# Entry
Amino acid sequence: MKRKIMAAVLAASMVLSLAACSSSSNETEAAAETEAATEATETEAAAEEETEAEAEGAADVKSVEGMTVAFIPKVTGNAFFESANNGAQKYAEEWGITVDYQGSSTAAVADQVQVINNAVASGADAICISSVDATGLDSALTEAAEAGVLVSTWDSDVTSSCRTLMVSQGTPDILGKMLVDMGVDALTKRGLDPAADPIKYCWHYSQATVADQNSWQVAGEAYIAENYPNWENVAPDNYYSEQDAEKAVTTGAAILEAHPDIDLIICNDSTALPGQAKAAQNKGLTKDDVTITGFASPMSMKDYAEADVLEEWGLWDCGVQGAMGCYLAAYLAAGNEVHVGDTIDIPSIGVVEVMPNDALVEGDTTADVNNGVVLLPERLTFTKENVNDYDF
# Structure
């Protein structure tokens, strides 16, 4: 009898225990489900808020449609600037802006001042200019801004306080190093040892007052001094051909005449490089006799590469650069504001970031609004093997 009673008690105890476990498990599952539902709701709400914020931000961006940008090169008739204009025109049609390509066949301050004045008189909303002089256009551009025309630069800058944004192909350190590295690579392929041999070299470009080219030369010299102390600059004052195609050939010939044993000529200018290559070709020289490198569009150097006058040279997509310059000029002219650190989504090109002016010029200051630098994302190196992959 006691065993039956004990068995009954144990059975009852087990039932109660199982019931309690079941109840506890159900409560835990219910709590977990409630918590998960709450988290899902919060996540969904956060996503909706983010989407609304993005939509609100997009709604705040003023359209560039209908804007007119005076797109001004250093000089017309040059392959680099004509290619930049082709790119700008292609994208402008998509964006609904007008790009008015205005320039002079002479790369001179007086000529660019006249073009600036013409742009203002024509009623342009913005100017995007590649300057022939680092400071020579400051007054004219300041007057244009005072007349209500948005001023920006591309390729070659002016004083940063006299414009809004500058669209640059790269920092001086990046481009100075690139110029030297292309020379090193070509010298090596000739069988020379750039790190040990007494390399003789010089620079040939437009003029010392062109901010971008001069900064690349200065940065390149610093890079050479640090990495190739065995090199000798045979013309420390540099050679200049003033972005004149004929003068580039005669200057190139003068270099080869004055320094018949020169190893490397660096032409950080899209007029100087083909001129120097032409001078070498006229003299019957090839890439096995002298190394010539620098910056120019691929198509402008194709024939010289295929004739083995030079090994390699570089540039960037100037069509994209020209388009970026025109879009950003129109973007600001439409009433949009930007600050250092802001990103701008350029349709069909991508997102770019506004950097401070000292990214280009050490110690330069940047205004609180609508002032700074935007860099191209990449640079290109060309040879006769890949030159036909490009069409500018």
About this structure: The chain is about 45% helix and 15% strand. The CA atoms of residues 358 and 364 lie 5 Å apart. The radius of gyration is 31 Å. The first strand starts at residue 68 and ends at 72.
